[in-house]
């Protein structure tokens, strides 16, 4: 096993010391938004000071296994994160494989450096993702039914009547979001003012008002009236296919995704917004969020398996007993939340805690044992025959 040190991303939406209660990260008095665990070159984990992407490149078959190497090439195809969400993330979508490759190539041809603030495509890969809540977590994921969205928009008054007229069914809820993103500046100002006047009411109106206060002048604060607002309970997950609009609002969770940092943003962020690109990538009518409540596959084990080959996530609640880890053809990444945990392979033992994680090699997975008290999150590829 490789013990991994991992980068904390101090994005503005992360709470001060937000990862400390979840993964035992040191308290620094700074924003802590995401703990990245993996080999993405933007923030690779390190083992004995060496970046994991370089270690994989040096010996891909040993670290990936022949099946994963043959399917995905010499790269770790998944990225594991722990998120502490103190404020809203942007309204965003992610590209599919063809869109990612084309967008990356286009921005390269335009001469945009990878760290340019107006660059959306940081790599040529898709970013399917699963989020599982570790505390109650508010999210916007996919579209509301059209009749519900129309009624909520009309309740705000005449300034949102144009949007409401576009919403007849779920297909038109998508059309209304496109209009919201691409409306002329004068209309956007009117819609932003309507969001700020949302007033008291149910959760959707409350979130609309909060988003308008956080991002004054941004009409996408109306998103809770168009998109499906949910509060995930701990252990509940969702899978977001390419092109499905979403925004995480508040809480904390474990996120497993294809190893990509491609994010196309449409609003609610100080970062680069590319509404025309988001509209181009927006999934067609009928594309929906996939609910992942977690399938029980053994005592203390739940599996979150979306319909893509890159990613599968297990939640292991071993307690004081030694539990066998899930087996499979490729490597695994593991991190613990809610307390430390111990992973052992033969005589080797690695403790998870203080933001530390582990890469388990393919030939070690059948011999790996897990012990609590922390909950271990076990990230792997999915069904490679899919």
Describe this entry's structure for a reader.
- The protein has about 375 residues and is of the alpha+beta class.
- It is built from 12 helices and 24 strands.
- Strands 2, 3, 6, 8, 9, 10, 11, 12 and 14 form a 9-stranded antiparallel beta sheet that branches. The chain has a 7-stranded antiparallel beta sheet with strand order 1-22-19-24-17-16-15. Strands 18-23-20-21 form a 4-stranded antiparallel beta sheet, with no helix packed on it.
- Helix 6 crosses helix 8 and helix 9 packs across helix 10 (about 205-215).
- The longest helix is centred in the first third of the chain and has 13 residues, at about 95-110.
- It is globular and about 70 Å long.
- The model has no long low-confidence stretch (mean pLDDT about 95).
Report the sheet-strand fraction.
25-35%
Give the uncertain stretches in residue-range form: none
Helix and strand content put the structural class at alpha+beta
Number of helices: 12
Helix content: 25-40%
Main sheet: strands, sense, barrel: 9 strands, antiparallel
Shape: globular
What distance lies between the first and last C-alpha atoms, to the nearest angstrom?
A: 28 Å
In angstroms, what is the radius of gyration?
21 Å
The total of beta strands comes to 24
Average predicted confidence as pLDDT: 94
């Amino acid at each position: 096993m490789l013990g991994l040190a991992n980068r904390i991303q101090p994005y503005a939406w992360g709470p001060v010391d937000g990862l400390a209660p979840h993964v035992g990260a040191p308290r620094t008095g700074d924003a802590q938004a995401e703990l990245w665990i993996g080999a993405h070159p933007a923030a690779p984990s390190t083992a004995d000071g060496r970046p994991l992407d370089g270690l994989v490149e040096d010996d891909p078959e040993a670290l990936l296994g022949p099946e994963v190497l043959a399917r995905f090439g010499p790269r770790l195809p998944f990225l594991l994160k722990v998120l502490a969400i103190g404020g809203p993330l942007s309204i965003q979508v992610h590209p599919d494989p063809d869109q990612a490759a084309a967008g990356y190539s286009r921005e390269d041809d335009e001469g945009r450096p990878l760290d340019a603030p107006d660059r959306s495509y940081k790599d040529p890969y898709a970013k399917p993702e699963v989020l599982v809540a570790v505390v109650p977590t508010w999210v916007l994921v996919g579209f509301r039914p059209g009749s519900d969205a129309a009624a909520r928009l009309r309740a705000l008054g005449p300034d949102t009547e144009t949007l409401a007229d576009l919403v007849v069914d779920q297909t038109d809820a998508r059309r209304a979001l496109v209009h919201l993103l691409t409306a002329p500046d004068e209309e956007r100002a009117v819609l932003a003012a309507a969001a700020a006047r949302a007033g008291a009411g149910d959760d959707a109106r409350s979130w609309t008002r909060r988003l308008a206060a956080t991002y004054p002048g941004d009409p996408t604060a109306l998103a809770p009236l168009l998109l499906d607002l949910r509060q995930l309970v701990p252990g509940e997950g969702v899978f977001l296919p390419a092109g499905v609009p979403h925004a995480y609002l508040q809480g904390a969770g474990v996120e497993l995704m294809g190893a990509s940092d491609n994010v196309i943003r449409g609003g609610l962020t100080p970062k680069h917004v590319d509404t025309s690109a988001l509209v181009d990538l927006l999934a067609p009518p009928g594309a929906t969020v996939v609910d992942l409540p977690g399938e029980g596959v053994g005592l203390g084990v739940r599996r979150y398996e979306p319909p893509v080959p890159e990613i599968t996530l297990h939640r292991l609640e071993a307690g004081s007993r030694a539990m066998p880890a899930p087996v499979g053809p490729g490597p695994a990444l593991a991190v613990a939340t809610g307390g430390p945990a111990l992973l052992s392979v033969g005589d080797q033992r690695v403790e998870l805690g203080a933001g530390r994680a582990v890469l388990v090699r393919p030939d070690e997975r059948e011999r790996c044992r897990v012990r609590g008290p922390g909950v271990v999150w076990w990230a792997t590829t999915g069904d490679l025959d899919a």
